[in-house]
Amino acid sequence: MIRVMVVDDQPLVRDGLAMLLRLRDELEIVGTANDGKEALEKARELQPDIVLMDIRMPGTNGVEGTKLLRDQLPQVKVLMLTTFKDSELIFQALENGASGYLLKDMPTDTIVQAILTVQAGGAVLPQDVTAQVVRELKRTREPDAEEAPKEVKQLTEREYEVLQQLGCGLSNKEIAEKLFITEGTVKNHVSNIISKLQLRDRTQAAVFAVRYHITTFL
């Protein structure tokens, strides 16, 4: 059973989501918190596997809360709850170690599946939402993108293609189908990408692809 904490400053949202998730046999809701600072304090005591973290909160917001959790309790994974308007904050949260994000109004089944994915070591980057986030980032950030590090040149052509798809939020299965290769081959490519680019995980690889405009929908 996956131990989950829900963090949101709005009691109706926080308690409502916790109540819905308590109905699922796969999950145990171990507690709730009002902001990122309280999330860290309670996580030390309750030891959740995954924290569902609202991105905009007074006090310590979700971006800061994610950094606190990942720095001090690295075994705890964070999944952001957000809206379409939070493109810059989403990007910052991913850079600070979040394993992905979901829109608050997504169905409970989608949220549960995302929790299962993150617990299994995956990243949750909904493709349609990610495309919109990247477009918004491109619109609001400086027009001249940073140059990609020289390590990118170490990637093979296929690894570069896989990195493009990671930046679009695709799963290994979806990448395999799109590139006409096996899922196992995709996993090997992802491991090579993470190693060559000296990244922490596939989420960081996706963030890398977005930051340096490697994604295919830019």
Please explain how this structure is put together.
The chain is 51% helix and 12% strand. It is α/β, with parallel strands linked by helices and 218 residues long. Strands 2-1-3-4-5 form a five-stranded parallel β-sheet, with helices on both faces. Strand 4 (77-82), helix 4 (87-95) and strand 5 form a beta-alpha-beta unit. Helix 2 (36-46) runs parallel beside helix 3 (62-72), helix 4 (87-95) crosses helix 6 (127-140) and helix 7 packs across helix 10 (202-211). The longest helix has 14 residues, at 127-140. The radius of gyration is 17 Å and the shape is globular. The model has no long low-confidence stretch (mean pLDDT 89).
Sum up the structure in keywords:
218 residues; alpha/beta; five-stranded parallel sheet; 10 helices; 51% helix; 12% strand; transcription regulation; transcription; phosphoprotein
How would the blueprint of this fold be written?
Elements: E1 2-7, H1 11-22, E2 27-33, H2 36-46, E3 50-54, H3 62-72, E4 77-82, H4 87-95, E5 101-103, H5 108-119, H6 127-140, H7 157-167, H8 172-179, H9 183-196, H10 202-211
> How many individual β-strands?
5
Sheet with most strands: strand arrangement: 2-1-3-4-5
The SSE string, one letter per element, is: EHEHEHEHEHHHHHH
Number of helices: 10
Point out poorly predicted stretches: none
Helix content: 40-55%
Strand content: 5-15%
Q: Which word captures the global form?
A: globular
Rg (CA only): 17 Å
Alpha carbon gap, first and last residue: 39 Å
The main sheet comes to:
5 strands, parallel
Mean pLDDT: 89
Supply the helix-strand structural class.
Answer: alpha/beta
